[in-house]
Design a protein that fits this description.
Radius of gyration: 30 Å
Helix content: 10-25%
Number of helices: 13
Shape: globular
Structural class: alpha+beta
Largest sheet: 19 strands, antiparallel
Number of strands: 38
Distance between the termini: 34 Å
Length: about 775
Amino acid sequence: MSLSGLAAFSSGSRTPTATSKTRKRVKKSFANGDVYDGEWYNGVPDGTGTYRWADGSIYEGEWKRGNKHGIGRYEWASKAMYHGDWIEGCMQGIGTYKSPDGSTYTGSWSKDCKHGLGRKEYANGDIYDGLWKDGVSEGLGRYIWKDGNQYNGQWMAGCMEGKGTFVWACGERYDGEWKAGKEHGYGIFTSKEGGKYVGQWANGLRHGRGISYPPGTVQMEGGPATPRSKKKSSKEVGSDKGGTPRGIAVGSSALDTSAETSTSHGFETEGTYSGNESADERKTNASRGDGSSGGEDAGSTRNVPEFVSLRDYEDGKLVSDSKHHLEKLSSGRMSLRKKKGKGRVRVEQGEQIFKGHRSYDLMICLQTGLQHTITKHSREVKSKLTEDDFVAKNGVLFPRKGSTSTPPHTTGDFIWKDYSPAVFTKLREYWGLDAGATLRSICGGQGLREFGTPGKSSSVFYVSHDNRFIIKTMRKFEMKALLEMLPKYYQHCTSHESTLLTKFFGLHRVTPKGGRKVRFVVMGNLFNTSLRIHKRFDLKGSTLGREVGAKKKQSELTVYKDNDLDYTFKMESGWRDKLVYQVQKDCKFLEEANVMDYSLLLGVHFRDKAKEENGDANGLDKESVETCIDLSAIQDPILRDHLMVAHKSMAISTLASQNSDLSHRDGSDQLESLASSTRPRRTHTLRPVFGGPGGTDFLSHMFGKSKVELGVNMAATGIPRSQAGAASALSDTENDDVPNELKSGAKDVVLYMGIIDILQEYTISNCL
């Protein structure tokens, strides 16, 4: 099913349910000793039920046509346990698996294998957080050892392979290329004193030519911070099938066997020169900061060394070593950074509220009241809610001068009222909202932005400065509808972690002295993303009057309608199945709550547009890297040529370090560039490959998520509507040849979606 068809699950149609008279609840015992207790339809389990096998295994959850399908919990006789999504009898979607040995995995699954984005906590205390494929780590990921060592970068078949950074607990690190769990290719080793070796590696050993820089000679920008020194480890990293991913021998000292150098973790310490310098030279170099002391300011001119060593290695053994003078360099320190792309000015929705703005006093009231509510109730989280919590109302007077329980503020007196505060506190906790971060976002000193509704209502919206939250004013009947559905809404959201329904974080009312009551709800912003939303659609599954007029001024903020949707979208098969399942569940809930006129809000990011606007994030050529060194001033051709190679090595290593530490990166243009540069592979039906590079799980990891959030960062292929028929005729067989016109018209996109406007009740007046 394409996403254009998903709107049929939205308002305007009812989700069919199996209500045949043959459906019943049974308890059946089978000849082999198995027992089933649950819903039964057409001769097989269908609905919810519990199946107990004779060997002691048990499954409790949802069924469809005799298969485990939906959300369920399976416990093996060995006491291993899985709880999460099932599709056609297989673990597929998002779930948690607990092994009898104490290890736990939470994340994406496909056909009973860890596949996609997930986090595994091993019984020995190690942690892997990243991408998986067919049960082993593959793609971007971070492995943290119990002793503090960590690797952050690319993986292949359970091994460190590609580009990445290994940081030892003692402060040493390697940035560069890996193969089969060993350093292989260009790389940089940095000692804890700050010296660097930049050169080639093979099978974990220095092999080929490289340059040794004493401390203070080179500064790399953008790398992650080095952790504090800890005890070194002698642990060997093993295969994931036997426990942990394969990698380097962390405590090995076999990488450099030259007698004249000291070793640490198998790497030559870059704080000393080779033993062919004289005692006078050693004294001179030491006075210039060449020694092992790393405490000097690397940017201080008087402490910058004047020599680097050009070295050749064979299988880790030093075969030649020559020093080269750097006095002709234009700068005593080299730095490396990637040039910034031009990018585009991002269009922000709404106008900034400032002092003197018509809504300034109301904003102060909202921020003051919210700060009071969140601070108070974050300290009083209930372990279990009662019926009274869903109807609770708390009113507080906020005098301008303050009181024993309220702070002073700059606007007039007002009355603040909370509705069901304990319930919304539990929801914020369930969705992982930190009270401090929420306060900084909404109540910080940067203020809110205001914009009017694009729909038929007269609501006004306020957006937090970081786009995380939206505050919507409400009419009285909307507040009443939310309060009436709140018990079932709470149950539905906490039972369906992947719900697409609007996330409500708080319901409040403010009444300024002598003013009118303003009711409002705090919600999550569906389009809180670093990727630019190029097109927005409000889809209802209807065509009558569902288009934006041609005369209306259009921009990235224009909200289009059903008839304007000129693409169908093909998602990864695994996430498509999960999306359809969840939309059906959400719409069934809304139907039972007598809600109508809701919409599927869809945001589309076109990856090719982002690439045109921001450039390619993987540009590692010399033009994309700026340096503060004048290579033309170096007379030695061997040193000059190798410095060029060294700069390429630094570029690869530095950018690998940045790209493998994406959860700590800022800068929307950089993230857009990386997302546009890492395109997903496609199946023969033009769908992105499930769990592959550039796919949904990859994007979620890129944005610092520990697991996929349904409806957010969803990779897809956009097919022009004129070609949708031909695209839907493609099958998954290997012999399909995709027509060139389909390939050329298909677009790689990232989708954001959620069900909004869910507070419109269906009454008899809607039929008149």
